[in-house]
Write a sequence for this structure.
């Protein structure tokens, strides 16, 4: 086969179909029509004498040849893309771009205010879409380009993802002003006797604090479970309930806080991106901006 006779753009389409298992979604990512994707696939099928993808109940399933080709194709496209992008510099002041980021609610609370202020002053053409995805969906979303970055607690190790440690935040116990637990020592017995509000994006399962308690053979009474922090101020203000939250959040909200009466590992937050985007100038810029926001917040 003479490689010079093959349109290399066909392999870009091949990669998109493989990633999304759908001609329609591939067309959306590539900003072309679905018939254009179908035509490109037909040409590549004819050139390679293989169907490459077979329609099934879950979408377009790759053939054995497609699975054999995908790794070298992606490596070649990445190398070519890197060669081109190294000659380009990202000018945030003039750029017109939207970044899509997965972030936990905690990350939103301490990162977005300073990040938005920087964008307003220095990068007015940059827009953000901040979403929350199930953690098991994040690696694929980063690989497909659906997300550019993800900010979350440590994820399952993946050879496809790169990360930097963004912040380590200890938990504290928060309560209303005048709460009985603000007086005297907050012992483990007093802590466990209170009614607790548990906040987690997950609808069930043990939280960070509960795992720490379990390690010492203890369990707290969770009287209320929430998936968002927004209702917590009013709930604490009008009751004797308490909650354990990251210290950064407690400081921002101005709540009464006490150290936890037991050892609890800090909440670790990392910033993740796909290895294919490691040399993408705009994503590199955004990673640096997020780290700068954390550094400024720590001072």
């Amino acid at each position: 086969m003479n490689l010079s006779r093959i349109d290399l753009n066909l392999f870009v389409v091949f990669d998109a179909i493989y990633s999304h298992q759908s001609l329609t979604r591939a067309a959306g990512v590539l900003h072309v029509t679905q018939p254009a994707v179908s035509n490109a696939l037909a040409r590549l099928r004819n050139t390679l004498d293989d169907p490459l993808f077979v329609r099934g109940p879950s979408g377009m399933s790759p053939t054995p040849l497609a699975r054999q080709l995908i790794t070298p194709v992606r490596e070649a496209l990445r190398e070519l893309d890197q060669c081109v992008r190294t000659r380009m510099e990202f000018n945030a002041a003039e750029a017109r771009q939207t970044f899509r980021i997965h972030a936990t609610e905690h990350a939103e609370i301490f990162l977005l205010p300073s990040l938005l202020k920087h964008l307003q002053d220095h990068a007015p053409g940059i827009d953000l879409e901040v979403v929350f995805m199930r953690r098991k969906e994040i690696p694929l979303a980063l690989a497909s380009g659906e997300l550019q970055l993800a900010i979350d607690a440590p994820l399952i190790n993946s050879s496809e993802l790169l990360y930097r440690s963004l912040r380590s935040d200890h938990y504290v116990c928060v309560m209303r002003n005048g709460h009985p637990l603000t007086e005297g020592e907050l012992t483990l017995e007093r802590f466990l006797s209170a009614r607790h509000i548990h906040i987690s994006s997950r609808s069930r399962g043990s939280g960070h604090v509960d795992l720490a308690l379990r390690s010492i053979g203890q369990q707290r009474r969770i009287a209320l479970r929430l998936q968002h922090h927004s209702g917590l101020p009013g709930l604490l203000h009008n009751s004797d309930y308490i909650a354990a939250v990251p210290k950064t959040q407690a400081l921002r909200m101005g709540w009464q806080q006490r150290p936890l009466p037991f050892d609890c590992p800090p909440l670790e937050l990392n910033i993740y991106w796909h290895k294919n985007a490691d040399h993408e100038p705009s994503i590199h810029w955004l990673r640096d901006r997020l780290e700068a926001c954390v550094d400024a917040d720590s001072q």
Q: What stands out?
A: DSSP finds eleven helices and twelve strands in the chain. The chain has three domains: 3-85, 97-168+268-298, 171-265. The CA atoms of residues 215 and 264 lie 10 Å apart. Residues 171-265 form a domain with the D-Maltodextrin-Binding Protein; domain 2 fold (CATH 3.40.190.10).
